[in-house]
Design a protein that fits this description.
about 0% strand, mainly alpha
Length: about 325
């Protein structure tokens, strides 16, 4: 009996359960949660990018031929006058497919990587370095998202920037010709490096500033617990935070976006990225089409976050964004 008492008195305490970031949320991040985030990302990116195809067509042409297309509205008028009203919707199909695939990876993988990296560094480090986790997770997610996007992005840019009658505009015909002339077009991944240089900084800014702005809203303006506010109020915060993040994204990623458009121009065939940038002018890379891109990306990013969070709230997953500072 005494031996049992002694043994029980020195028995080790039960091991403390290991912290898991996936379950440190109001809604646990299960595989079902991640899949719903991926589906929300498909709707978020696919629908918004397709909806602004006319603005995208104009923006791309302003980047590759700024002398001819020197403004948003004048550029639209020029395209319609020369090619007809339907020309402003060129490339809508590869846009829908490519950006739906990108959204699947971008939003879904972001949630996964955020939890994976948090678990790797532990709770205390994760809480102290949230900003770095946002940046690392968004960069990792976009790395894979761009691989999914690249083939259709190349088709889209080629269709949108080729002079009328020089390239098919239908999805299958345009893609087939890209494959047939892949030595020249560099299809399917020839634009991947410029795409990474555009999209990874863009996505890092998009997620980092969105998380931070949401946190600021709930710290300084909507100071009660987030759950106490209506879904409409929460989604308004989502849209405003997304729009602010989008303006920053547009500025950060614009030079690389211009390069992606220039790569699709026939006269740049066979030239290196450095040569194209030098000939076009570095100041032009940073400024030509920037106003159109700020309007487009600000609105686009705000709507993307709003659609994504609307989808999430419809399934009881809550809205996204950083926590209020305590």
């Amino acid at each position: 009996m005494y031996k049992n008492l002694i043994h029980n008195s020195i028995a080790p305490a039960p091991a403390e359960e290991k912290w898991d970031a996936r379950f440190d949320h109001p809604v646990p991040h299960t595989n079902d949660y991640y899949m719903k985030c991926m589906a929300g990302g498909v709707l978020s990116c696919g629908l918004t990018h397709t909806a602004i195809t006319p603005l995208d067509v104009t923006k791309c042409n302003m980047q590759v031929n700024p002398a001819k297309y020197n403004g948003i509205f004048s550029g639209l008028r020029t395209i319609i006058a020369e090619e007809g009203a339907t020309a402003v919707f060129k490339g809508w199909a590869p846009t829908l497919i490519g950006y739906s695939m990108q959204g699947f990876c971008k939003f879904g993988f972001y949630e996964i990587f955020k939890d994976v990296y948090s678990n790797l560094v532990g709770k205390e480090t994760a809480e102290k370095n949230q900003g770095l986790l946002f940046l690392a997770a968004s960069a990792s997610a976009e790395f894979f998202a761009d691989i999914a996007l690249c083939p259709m992005e190349m088709v889209k840019v080629k269709v949108q920037t080729s002079p009328a009658g020089t390239w098919p505009t239908g999805l299958f015909a345009a893609t087939s010709k890209m494959i047939e002339h892949k030595a020249e077009t560099r299809f399917p991944l020839g634009s991947l490096v410029p795409l990474w240089s555009r999209q990874i900084p863009y996505t890092m800014a998009k997620f980092f500033f969105f998380e931070k702005v949401v946190g600021a809203f709930y710290t300084h303006i909507f100071t009660e617990d987030r759950s106490s506010y209506s879904k409409g109020t929460q989604l308004s915060v989502t849209f405003m935070s997304g729009y602010i993040a989008g303006v920053i994204c547009a500025i950060v990623s614009h030079p690389a976006d211009s390069l992606v458009s220039l790569l699709g121009k026939a006269e740049n065939k066979g030239k290196s990225v450095t040569q194209i940038a030098s000939e076009f002018g570095y100041s032009n890379l940073m400024t030509k089409g920037l106003v159109a891109r700020i309007i487009m990306i600000g609105t686009l990013t705000g709507l993307q976050w709003w659609i994504y969070d609307s989808f999430k709230t419809a399934f009881g997953l809550g809205t996204s964004g950083g926590k209020a500072s305590k």
